[in-house]
Amino acid sequence: MHADTFPRLRRQAHAAYVIAKKDAIIYYLKPPVISFGIVFPLFFYLAFAAGRTVPTGVMVPGIVAMALFFTASAIGPLVTPWERQARTFERLVTSPASLEAILCGDVIAGMAFGALLSLVPLVLGLCLGAQIGNPGCLLLGIALGALAFSSMGVLMAAPPTNAPSQIMMLSSLVRLPLIFISGVFVPHADMPAWGQWLSPLSPLSYSADLIRVGFGGAAYFPVSLDLAALMGFAALFLGTARYVHRLTRDWAH
What's the 3-state SS for the chain? Predict the structure, then answer.
């Protein structure tokens, strides 16, 4: 190992932190992030639950998982297109920060946004009587879910376009089907056979499963599978995003 390896890693880690901080300051309060990341999932879930007798212990884990899914994946699809549009992307790619550091910074920003906003329905649920049965699974479900969903958002921004509307359309086309097969709205046991076959393809299925266990519910998948799947999805999304950026020659070697 070269002597400058650790100093280089420290520099890139600091670059990722700076990029995440920049994303938080500039993009957290952008209207599309607020609407697609907070307002839309809240009303979407409440509209689905309206008129149904849903126990608090079932409703709260679903709302927490939905909030995490939408908020953590809301930052990534907008950061890169906006920066391409504002001509700041070119300056970023020519900076000393590596591609990996920039992508990790975007992922960290999405993770933090998702994890913080998921605390709102969590606290409200506790106030309404929901109880935490397994804090470890709850924390892992939120942390690893935020990692996987944020990485998915970064992947959605990888195609070479500077039109945020195109990315948001793609984002909606991807996220909505993943919600319906995740078991958030309809328990896995009540899904048709095709839904049960497709459910493992959604990263939300595993995060929602861990969060459900965290609130004392029954797991559908083994907890070890939930953990491995979320880490695998995160690695797959981030690795594919890196590949697409390289393939489209956004980055000069």
Answer: CCCCHHHHHHHHHHHHHHHHHHHHHHHCCCHHHHHHHHHHHHHHHHHHHCCCCCCHHHHHHHHHHHHHHHHHCCCHHHHHHHHHHCCCHHHHHCCCCCHHHHHHHHHHHHHHHHHHHHHHHHHHHHHCCCCCCCHHHHHHHHHHHHHHHHHHHHHHCCCCCCCHHHHHHHHHHHHHHHHHCCCCCCCHHHCCHHHHHHHHHCHHHHHHHHHHHHCCCCCCCCHHHHHHHHHHHHHHHHHHHHHHHHHCCCCCC
